[in-house]
Design goal:
ODC_N, about 25% strand, ornithine cyclodeaminase, domain 1, eight-stranded parallel beta sheet, eight-stranded mixed beta sheet, single chain, disordered C terminus, NAD(P)-bd_dom_sf, about 35% helix, 11 helices, Rossmann fold, Ornithine cyclodeaminase, 2 domains, alpha/beta, ODC_Mu_crystall
Length: about 375
Amino acid sequence: MLKPSRQAYVPFVSVENMMRLVLHIGIEKMMVDLVTEIEADFKRWPLFDKTPRVASHSDIGVIELMPTSDGQTYGFKYVNGHPSNTKQGLQTVTAFGLLADVATGYPLMLSEMTILTALRTAATSAMAAKWLAPRDSKVMAMIGNGAQAEFQALAMKAVCGIEEVRLYDIDPAATAKCVRNLEGRGLNVVPCKTAEEAMQGAQIITTCTADKQYATILTDNMIGSGVHINAVGGDCPGKTELHKDILLRSDVFVEYPEQTRIEGEIQQMPADFPVTELWQVIAGQAEGRRDARQITLFDSVGFAIEDFSALRYVHSRLKDSGRYQDLDMIADPDEPRDLFGMVLRAQQSEVASPTKPASATAV
């Protein structure tokens, strides 16, 4: 039996290899690179297929598929969100993703995306702040110090020049974890006892909490003029973090309105509540920050194009890094129409020389 062709093997980036790749590139360098990739794709936003993610909701979480294509490459991400998982020692969010060639339909890469999603979410927040936050912002408040917090802080440092991050979480252990992880990374890290204390002097305020419920993490009286808010945690129906009066005082920017009106902070507002699409600001088609007293709010829910950008970036780094495995996952008969014959020949080969299935090998 002939060996499968090169196209039958799909590069697979495991968790181990993703961590090795991130450390090889450098966390902050990778954040900057991802912002560059996402901005480039936002500038060609009209080329992409766009649809709200396909979601299966339950009382305890959500499982979603996030697909898109630019006409040449197709990508999707599988991702879940189960806030109660941490009580069982499990991650709230897990993910994997795939790129495929539109011309043939053959997969180009399969990758873990739990780590990559954390990176691209933080990079997208920093990208939004780059365009919307007050000029020369130096202090960031991080409300919610879970798995995403360190990524957010380092992205803001690398992309926006943040020098101080003020941390608050209802669980002091989460804040202590974040303080430990950010030690020695060039930030002044200040643990705080209340959200109000965390926001003192902050030009950028990021909320990233996990409970799947309507919540009021920030009230209107907590927000002064001239700040930028990244609302990251509100990302599914019935889950918000901000009092709606904050939205009424803010200029709100979103990724894809059709999705954000279902999942974001603006699900609290009427269907005609005015928003600006962030891609339009980046492409020079809409105004971002106008003056020093303006409150800007990025109602971030995560969109498939950002995952597409992140997957393409990783794919572009594989050849030189060698940090992947080849998976034999595409049936590739010698004669394309003879798939059954391929199975029969495999049976004959097995009888002649029975062996255990070979495991994937690192390249």
